[in-house]
Amino acid sequence: MFCNVGFAEIDKIKNLDTIKFILSKDSISPSGIEMGSYLCWGNDNKSNYSVKKMSNRTCHRTFSHKLFKTLNEDGFKKLYEEFVSATNIPKCKGQYSKDPTKNDSLNWDNCIGYIHDQGDTFIAPFREGYITGLGIKIDYAYSIYIGEFVDDYMHGKGIYYSSGDFFKDFPIRERKSIVEEGIWYEDEQVETTSRKNFR
After folding, report:
1. DSSP assignment letter at 91
2. Do 122 and 79 touch, CB atoms closer than 8 A?
3. What would the pLDDT profile of 69-124 be if each residue is shown by its tens digit?
4. Any idea what DSSP says for residue 182?
5. Which residue of 12, 18, 53, 115 pairs with 59 in a disulfide if CB–CB is 3.0 to 4.6 A?
6. Any idea where the domains of the chain sit in the sequence?
7. Backbone phi and psi for residue 97, each to the nearest 5 degrees, phi listed first
8. What is the pTM of this model?
9. Taking a C-beta distance cutoff of 8 angstroms, is the pair 115, 121 a contact?
C-alpha cells in the first residue's frame, strides 16, 4: 500500500524554511547561531565543522552539524510548526510517551504528530495511531528521510540524506554525504531512482 505522492510533493517539504536552511550553504541560522556547512578533515584524521572550505584540509558539504545544532536549539519544534502550517491537518493532541498508559500517540488520528524518541525525530501525519502519509524522519545518525510512511514504516517514495560524517571507515576523500531518491518498502530501500553526492 502506497500513498502515491509525487516527488513534487516531497519538494514542498524540502522548501520549509528549516529544511531549506539545513540543506543550504548558509552558515547563520535565523536565530543568529553559527553552524557549519562543511566538515573538514586533516591528514591526522581529525575533523572540524566550518562555515566554509578550509585550506590544507579535505572538506565535504555536510548538514549534520546544522541538524545537531537545531535539535539542541529547539528540538525541531519550529520545523513542526512549519510542517503543520503547510498542511490542512491539525496538530495531534497530547504527546508521545514510552509509557503506554501515558502515550497519547496510540490514539492520534488524522493529525500531524511530533515524536522524539531514542535519538529519532518524526514529524508526520498519523492515522489510527500509526505514522501514515508524507512526513519527515531525522535519525540518531543525523540523516534525513523525507517521504511516505505507512503504519510507522518508511514506505513509498522518498528522499534520504545520508551523513558522510559517520563514514569513518572510508578514505577521507570518499566521506561525502549522499542524497538518494527512490522507493522504500517497510524501512528498506528497494529501488533507487537517483543517487548523488550532497552539494
Report:
1. B
2. no
3. 999 999 999 999 999 999 989 999 999 998 989 999 999 999 999 999 888 999 99
4. E
5. 53
6. 7-194
7. -145, 145
8. 0.91
9. yes
